[in-house]
Design a protein that fits this description.
The chain is mainly α. Helices cover 75% and strands 0% of the residues. It has one domain. The longest helix is centred in the first third of the chain and has 37 residues. The two termini are 19 Å apart.
């Protein structure tokens, strides 16, 4: 079981890093756009589309990694003062009854959202470039599937903690 957990966490970490590197590409593209627009009076027709697509994809790829690193939102001043067992119980209830069902349901909806765009060759309609949108929508689906997988890993960790097994800190 722990081999599967480690494999999922490596995959989530890989996509987290991919999302982080997308920010670097975004910065280069935006700097190029600003120089092109204001120095050479020749704005690009693709910068807006690249900007929102790269930013959105980086967020999608980072959701699961943030959970893995325990950097998601919670009321830390209460949570940190609880015992490991109490924290694990709260997390387990939240993951099993609230977060996992919502994320799985959203993943299914995002698959349909992606597949419909792919099937008809939907384009953005936002700029003169007008790219197909299915690759961008695929990142939403991938991000939420990774999020669901990481939630399952966190459920396994909560159960292990409740059974008294020490857990390594996220890296």
């Amino acid at each position: 079981m722990w081999a599967i957990v480690r494999s999922i966490e490596r995959l989530v970490k890989l996509f987290g890093y991919i999302g982080a590197w997308m920010i670097s590409v975004l910065i280069v593209a935006m700097v190029y756009e600003v120089i092109s627009r204001y120095l050479f009076d020749a704005p690009t027709f693709w910068a807006y589309e690249i900007g929102y697509m790269l930013m959105g994809a980086s967020f999608m790829f980072g959701i699961a990694y943030a959970l893995q690193l325990r950097r998601h939102i919670r009321v830390d001043f209460v949570y940190d003062n609880l015992s490991v067992g109490s924290r694990s119980t709260i997390d387990l209830i939240g993951y099993v009854f609230f977060l996992l069902p919502i994320v799985v349901w959203t993943s299914w909806g995002l698959w349909i959202y992606f597949y419909d765009a792919y099937k008809i060759g939907e384009v953005s309609g936002e700029s003169a470039w007008n790219p197909v949108v299915w690759p961008f929508r695929l990142t939403f689906f991938i991000g939420f599937v990774l999020f669901a997988l990481q939630i399952v890993v966190e459920i396994v960790k909560c159960v292990a903690a409740l059974r008294g097994r020490p857990l390594p800190e996220p890296s």
